[in-house]
Design a protein that fits this description.
By secondary structure, the protein is an all-alpha fold. It is built from nine helices and no strands. It has helices spanning 2-25, 32-56, 64-74, 84-112, 119-134, 156-168, 172-199, 206-219, 247-254. α1 crosses α4 (84-112), α4 (84-112) crosses α7 and α7 (172-199) packs across α8. It is globular. The chain starts with a helix and ends with a helix. Mean pLDDT is 84; it is low at 223-236.
Length: 255
C-alpha cells in the first residue's frame, strides 16, 4: 500500500510542478496528452534538479537546467491548459501502467530472479545511497578517501532514487525497482501513447492500437521490429525494459 501511495504522490508532484512551470514558460501544445506528458517530464526534471542543487551546494551537473529554462522562458508563447476531465483520464491511465510496471518489476527482480542483483541496477542504487550520504556527484565508492571530487555522469535516476528513498524511508535498491521504474516507465509510455495517437488519429480503434504500440515500445526488443535496425548505425535502440538506465534518452526521443 505504501508503494502505491508513493507512486501516486510522485506522479502528482511531477505533474503539478511541471504544469505550473509550463504555464509560466507558456510552451504551446495543442492536445491534452501532449501537455500532460510535458508536465510530467518538466516536473520530474525540476524536482531532481532542485534536490541535486540543494544536496551538492550547486556543485552539480544539473546547474545547467535553470539556464535552459531561462532560454525557454525567453521564447514563451500562449499556454493551453489541461481540462480537469482529461487530466483525470490521462492520470488514471498512467497510474494503471505505473502499477503494472511496479508489479512486473517486483515479479522479475524479486521472484523470477530470486533477488539476484544486476550490476547496473545495484550500481545506480549505490550512487543514490552515496549521494544522500555525501552530497557529491561521484561514482567513486572508496569510503576510505577523506576527500572526493565530483565526476560527470548521468545522475538523473540516482538523484530521483536518492530523494524518494529518503522521503519514504526505503532502501535505494527497492526505490529504484519499485518507484523509479514505474514512474519513468509510465511517463515513457504516456509519451509513446501520445505519439501513437497522433499518428493513428484517423484510424479506427486508435486508443486501443496506441495502447498496444506504447506497451510494445516498453517491452519488445529491436529484433522484433526489423525497421528499428535502421537506427543501429547511430544508436542502440531496443525495448525500454532492457535498457532502463537509458530512460532519460527514451524521454528525449519522445519529446
Amino acid at each position: 500500500l505504501m508503494i502505491l501511495l508513493a507512486i501516486i504522490t510522485i506522479l502528482l508532484a511531477n505533474f503539478l510542478l511541471g504544469f505550473i512551470l509550463l504555464s509560466q514558460l507558456r510552451i504551446q501544445l495543442q492536445s491534452n496528452l501532449e501537455r500532460y506528458f510535458l508536465s510530467q517530464v518538466f516536473g520530474v526534471i525540476t524536482i531532481v534538479t532542485v534536490y541535486a542543487l540543494y544536496k551538492t551546494g550547486l556543485n552539480s551537473i544539473f546547474i545547467i537546467v535553470p539556464f535552459l529554462l531561462l532560454v525557454l522562458f525567453r521564447f514563451r508563447k500562449d499556454f493551453y491548459r489541461i481540462k480537469a476531465y482529461a487530466f483525470i483520464k490521462i492520470f488514471g491511465l498512467q497510474l494503471f501502467v505505473g502499477i503494472l510496471l511496479c508489479l512486473v518489476a517486483y515479479y522479475f527482480f524479486y521472484v523470477f530472479m530470486d533477488g539476484a542483483l544486476f550490476g547496473d541496477n545495484q550500481f545506480y542504487a549505490s550512487i543514490a545511497y552515496a549521494l544522500n550520504k555525501t552530497g557529491i556527484e561521484t561514482t567513486n565508492f572508496d569510503w576510505t578517501l577523506t576527500e572526493k571530487s565530483a565526476t560527470p555522469y548521468h545522475y538523473t535516476e540516482s538523484w530521483f532514487t536518492a530523494l524518494w528513498s529518503k522521503l519514504f524511508q526505503l532502501n535505494t535498491l527497492k526505490t529504484y525497482y519499485l518507484l523509479y521504474i514505474p514512474v519513468f516507465g509510465s511517463t515513457i509510455f504516456i509519451g509513446a501513447f501520445t505519439l501513437a495517437k497522433r499518428l493513428l488519429k484517423s484510424v479506427k480503434y486508435n486508443f486501443l492500437l496506441s495502447f498496444i504500440l506504447a506497451f510494445t515500445f516498453l517491452f519488445l526488443q529491436n529484433v522484433d521490429f526489423p525497421f528499428f535496425k535502421v537506427f543501429q548505425n547511430y544508436y542502440h535502440i531496443g525495448s525500454w525494459f532492457h535498457n532502463i538506465k537509458f530512460s532519460v534518452i527514451y524521454i528525449e526521443l519522445l519529446v
